[in-house]
Amino acid sequence: MSKFTSLHEFIMDRQAEFPFASGELSRLLNDIALASKIVSRDVRRAGLVDHILGAQGETNIQGEDQQKLDVVADEQFIKMFQFGGEVCGIASEENDDFMAFENEEAKNGKYVVLFDPLDGSSNIDVNVSIGTIFSIYRRISPDGTKATLADMLQKGTRQVAAGYVLYGSSTMLVYSTGHGVNGFTLDPSIGEFCLSHPAMKMPETSRLYSMNEGNIDICHQGIQDYIKYCQGEEKETGRPYSGRYIGSLVADFHRSLIKGGIYIYPAVPSAPKGKLRLLYECNPLAMIAEQAGGIATTGYERIMEVEPTELHQRVPYIVGSKKMVQQVLDLIQKADLK
Ligand code: P6P
Q: Residue 6: CB within 6 Å of ligand 1?
């Protein structure tokens, strides 16, 4: 039985590791945890929203407009960032443009946060796990001025922290500040995130692959070759691979982090640059993957080295166990040489 460590205690204990250990990043991480608890409560009630508390788009019995859960989550995080005192601006999957906060509390904020408030929200109706993904940068524009687009369009290598919240069978918050990866599970009976997965390491290999195989015939030949290998067409002896695809990025990624595996969302004709977003999906998970010993790549470039050019930029995404991703890269290179 190990000692109970709350997220708050853990952050304070590790504060000295932060490059700017003046407590600002600690407070920001605690703000994210608080907003996540509120979103977790709302997610757990989602099934009631449409069927008992009033359908989205209608007014509920309190006469309140029933909003889509991802809009509610987006507003929850934005409010937390805007008035938390550490953030001068944000970019969100739910908002076309970035937001430069102008209120008094935010003008001295030293950080910007890019996030997807509720990724996979189309799965809510079928009660499948969903997640929040966040990426934190130091602003590059002068303190005290309005946040700029340049603050948002920074390479993934410049993230000071990144992580995700998985609203699954339990609610977990997993994050890194560049000193490894740690996972915290929410104990709803006390409303605390408790350190449950210290020093997380992604297994170097596994037999779990995760891809929407509806794309198998319309993606890069090297990826087709890899999936066919996993399906056993060219494999010697040994247990077959298993396909696992939840269709919720955070859930599929989290499984790879715990059990090992590879997640692939390639470029396809309907999404020639890939489907997933660089800034608030791929980069934060790439930081977690690399900090845990994994790899995250477009197939040709390290994800965190991709130069951002626009907020909602998409990239092909291959992320997971080192040996599995390397095998895909080798097959892509081999296919390109033919
Ligand atoms: P497809 C959810 O919409 C999402 O952005 C990710 O969470 C998920 O991995 C992917 O899209 C699923 O996409 O095309 O397989 O339905």
A: no
Atom 16, ligand 1: residue with shortest CA distance: 247
Q: For residue 211, report the distance from its CA to the centre of ligand 1, in Å.
A: 10
SS3 103: coil
Q: How far, in Å, is the centroid of ligand 1 from the Cα of 144?
A: 38
Of 66-75, 218-227, 291-300, 323-332, least confident by mean pLDDT is: 66-75
Residue nearest to atom 4 of ligand 1 (CA): 120
Structure tokens at 233: 């067409």
How would you label 39-68 residue by residue, b for 16+ Cβ within 10 Å and e otherwise?
bbebbeebeebbeebbeeeeeeeeeeebee
* CATH number for the domain formed by residue range(s) 208-337: 3.40.190.80
120 ligand 1 Cβ < 6 A: yes
State the Cα–Cα distance between residues 226 and 338, nearest whole angstrom.
Answer: 16
Q: What's the CA gap between 142 and 272, in Å, rounded?
A: 37
Closest atom of ligand 1 relative to the 119 alpha carbon: 7
Q: Which CATH class for the 7-197 domain?
A: alpha beta
Q: Which residue has the higher pLDDT, 175 or 50?
A: 175
Distance from residue 246's CA to the centre of ligand 1 (Å): 9
Give alpha helix (H) positions in the chain.
Answer: 7-13, 24-44, 46-51, 69-84, 149-152, 221-230, 249-259, 283-291, 322-337
Map out the domains of the chain as residue ranges: 7-197, 208-337
Q: Using the 8-state DSSP alphabet, how is residue 65 labeled?
A: B
